[in-house]
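User: Hi! I have a protein structure encoded as tokens and I'd like to know what sequence might fold into it. I'm fairly new to this, so please keep things simple.
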């Protein structure tokens, strides 16, 4: 277990702590609570050095929203964490792997994964740098309706545990806009609730579709997931490089042709499309604080400034400079 100081919360305050990516009970929330690996303590948090910082930014009778940031760096599963309430987690930065029972899923920027309520899980971090994102929770009746409509029938949450949704890039931009507005002001509750519910519908639909793609024997599905996960890790680690297919296939231990087929079957995207998606999602984040487009294009591996601008505008319907101004 990683060495580190014990982080203890007073018993009177434990009802205010959120589990990692899961939102706590209704009521007032302190804005700066850090707990190891997002543990919602049954008694008190364990020792450790992977801290998760939570910042609730919105609450209504229908929806609750929070930012999370985690500086975890362990390559192996950390201490157990407790997910108290069902939550959809939207990843904005970083890469982490979630272990829940026998189910395991890797989450990257632009992904959404589902955390069921009343369950214990662990996380690990294949790359340094931690992760952060947005957690959204709704009341149980709304959640059941969202999951049911996404699956064209009643969907049991445990079907979703091995799956991730690649949330549309424009929806991630809208989520960033919403979170930024909530940080700066109090937008109309109608707008926030409606946007959050539509985002959850897209995430739930994407997860169900991804789950539906996983056919064949269990051993084959595991091998395919492992290969796709390796590609995702490689893309995040070497986002700025001009990767070649034979190199990626070698890392995934598949032939180039087989890897192309498996990756598209599992994600609905080509490897090149996924690489560009991750570069553009990173650009969304960087442009919130920087405005040198030529340097950013080169840093993210685009051929030229004009290539980057065209790809960004086509994907998000904003040119990079417009997004930078609006997001600051």
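Assistant: Happy to help. Inverse folding works backwards from shape to sequence: for each of the 328 positions I chose a residue that suits the local structure. Here it is:
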């Amino acid at each position: 277990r990683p060495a580190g100081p014990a982080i203890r919360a007073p018993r009177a305050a434990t009802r205010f702590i959120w589990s990692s990516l899961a939102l706590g009970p209704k009521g007032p929330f302190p804005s700066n609570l850090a707990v190891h690996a997002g543990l919602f303590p049954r008694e008190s948090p364990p020792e450790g050095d992977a801290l998760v910082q939570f910042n609730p930014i919105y609450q209504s009778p229908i929806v609750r929203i929070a930012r999370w940031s985690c500086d975890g760096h362990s390559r192996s599963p950390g201490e157990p964490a407790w997910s108290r309430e069902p939550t959809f987690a939207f990843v904005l930065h970083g890469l982490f792997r979630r272990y829940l029972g026998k189910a395991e899923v890797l989450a990257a920027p632009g992904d959404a994964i589902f955390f069921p309520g009343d369950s214990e899980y662990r996380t690990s971090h294949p790359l340094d740098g931690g992760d952060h994102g947005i957690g959204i929770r709704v009341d149980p009746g709304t959640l059941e309706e969202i999951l049911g409509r996404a699956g064209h029938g009643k969907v049991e949450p445990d079907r979703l545990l091995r799956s991730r949704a690649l949330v549309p890039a424009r929806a991630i931009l809208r989520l960033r806009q919403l979170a930024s507005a909530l940080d700066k002001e109090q937008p109309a509750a109608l707008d926030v609730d409606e946007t959050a519910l539509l985002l959850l519908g897209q995430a739930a639909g994407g997860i169900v579709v991804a789950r539906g793609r996983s056919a064949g024997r269990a051993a084959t599905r595991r091998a395919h997931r492992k290969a796709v996960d390796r590609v995702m890790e490689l893309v995040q680690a070497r986002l700025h490089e001009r990767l070649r297919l034979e190199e990626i296939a070698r890392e995934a231990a598949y032939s180039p042709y087989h890897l192309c087929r498996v990756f598209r079957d599992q994600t609905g995207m080509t490897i090149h499309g996924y690489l560009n998606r991750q570069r553009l999602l990173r650009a969304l984040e960087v442009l919130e604080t920087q405005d040198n487009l030529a340097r950013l294009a080169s840093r993210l591996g685009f051929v030229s400034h004009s290539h980057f601008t065209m790809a960004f505008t086509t994907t998000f319907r904003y040119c990079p400079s417009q997004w930078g101004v609006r997001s600051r």
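A useful reference point when you look it over: The first helix runs from residue 140 to 150. Feel free to ask if any position seems puzzling.
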